[in-house]
Amino acid sequence: MSDDTLAPDNPAPTPEALTAPPAPPPSTVKPVNCPNCGGTVEIRVAGTTVSVICSHCGSTLDATSPDLQVIAKADEALKTPEIPLGTRGVIKGRTWEVVGYQERTDEEVTWAEYLLFNPYEGYAFLVDDGRRFNLGLLLDKLPTSNWGLGLSADGQNFSRFGDPYPVHTVFVVGEFYWRAAVGETVQETDYVTPGTMLACEDYQGERTWTRLDMLEWGEAETAFRIAKRRKEYSSPAPHERSPYKSQLFEAWVIGVIAAVTLFLVSGMAGSQQRIASTTTDAVLDGPEKTLVIKDVVLPPGRSRVEIDADATSLDNSWVDLDYSLTDQKTQDSIDSYGTAEFYSGTDSDGSWTEGDRKPTVDLSSIPGGRYDLVVTLSAHKWNGAGSSSSAPVTDTSLMGGHGFADGGWGSSSGGGVTVPVTVTVDRGGVFGGNIILGLLVILIWPIIVLFRHLGFEKRRKAVLSSGSDDDDSGSDD
Amino acid sequence: MFRANCPNCGAPIAFRSADLPVKVCDYCHSAVLRTGGNLAAMGKVADVPDDVSPLQLGVRGRVGARSFELIGRVRWRYADGAWNEWLAWFDDGSTGWLGESMGRYMLLRQVDPAHVVSDVVSLLKSGYAVMPGTKAMIDNVEYWASDVKTVSCVASEGELPFNSLGLSAQSIDLMSADEHCASIQKAAGEDVEIYAGRYVTLADIAATGLREFEGWPMPAYEA
Predict the structure, then answer these.
(1) pTM of the model
(2) Which residues of chain B have pLDDT under 70?
(3) Which CATH architecture has domain B2-44?
(4) Interface residue A45 vs chain B (CB under 8 A)
(5) A295 in the same domain as A259
């Protein structure tokens, strides 16, 4: 940069700047008088506006004629849009001015459409179905067909929602870039993806595509300063996102975390606590023996009690164990039983063994208190080893352990042989049933949300099913 | 630059290219036709309306590596509305049109008819009606006619490649599945002219020198 281009430190203002301050920028709004009623009509998009419907008398004026010719005379009192003409608001960072308002119907429901304008952005639509608002922009690219499965536009896939249907304009006020008029009928076809609808309008050989994005609850109301709508989902729009879908995801994530936590915690709480352990000798084929473990103390609430028997030296014999856990105070008792058994022998397949020398019995949800555990043992010898070709039935407890005609069982000769049996009582530990109950409780919320979501989707598509069958019993207005 | 004085009012006028033989005098709004060094006033042109357009003569923009300036404007009218076409003078001396209709913009360049495969051209030549939906291949891009109308020129300003006074034409808008759009026009007694390009936003062309409007924030587009 050479010296002579440097500006002086304090440039003297030019005489023009002193005498004639720059004219303020022009306004986009030009007031004119309605040639029918004389009221002031504000033209907001001069040059592009084609039709003006006077907000005072409802007459339709031709904005393309220099003197605003009256196209259709009217003298009705008009309704006022909820968002008044001329209101400006900011949606998604862009300022929009309401320049036109129309009400349209598909013969079942009526909705409102605001025409919005910004001199640098052009036009947009604010569509109000009475519950929620959508911001509509004209597509400047044609959607492409997805092999008959729907349409693709702006990188999104849309599926067709129902059949084409006629849409009638039932009320207009303000200004429009087309010849807006009550009675105008277009044929509309809708394509949807969650949150967005593509509306295809056919009118006298011209086809326009509008992309409608559903705004958040309260977004348009805040922008244009009107009362907020109440959230409700009784009659969702065809492209409305299920509010339960994100909840569903959250509910399942939380559910899974809770379930994993349940397993971890119960695993830790599963460390059992030994209450008592006693060993006694049972005489094979001898008389019943009774063992009493006194003062089994359970804490308040509900506990699980595990009774383990251990008869490690059993061989081709079994011990029936009857348990009775009796509350010292109420004398209520909880009964159960187990069988310790062990058999071995040799047959054509070689040697075999069967049986469980250490049976476990679980008692769940035992109330807190002081109990006595009465154990009745009766030991028996089995003489069938080596002579039987079939494996013995092991779960003799199911069969009652008695009454076999087969010679091997209980025909005694082992008098006086004793088997040491250790009975151990533990408290706590994991009981599967409780975990399943816990899981069910955890899953209640995700399942409720799932059903809400399915209900929402059913209502969203209700229009489709009521249209396809001729049954008119549906009465959800 | 060819400098002269308006044959009607004597105000100084300038022509920047032999390709743009018409200049609407800024003072008396006469259309002045230049033929070599000779000037002829063709008659008064209607004033362009004071419309709410952010564009004006002198607005600059950019497409790819090329920058342009808006130096002329023709306003067209049809039965149900009107729109502007702004003449864009590119820095390589070529021209294009920035169409402004219903708040949307199309940047179009003239296409050699040899690059067009369509019934539209022959239908227009023989004076038959073109139906919306008729296909056209222009520079290997597939288009469909979306709008067919009769248009007439109602006003103009600045420098122009043709005399717009009293001009009327058949005009067909075409859309494609991508961002392309096109316009095919035929004025009475003239050849079919084909223009193709794409929809743009003011941000896309990084427009500067836009008109200001009271109460509206002026966007600042990144060049």
Answers:
(1) 0.72
(2) 223
(3) Single Sheet (2.20)
(4) yes
(5) no
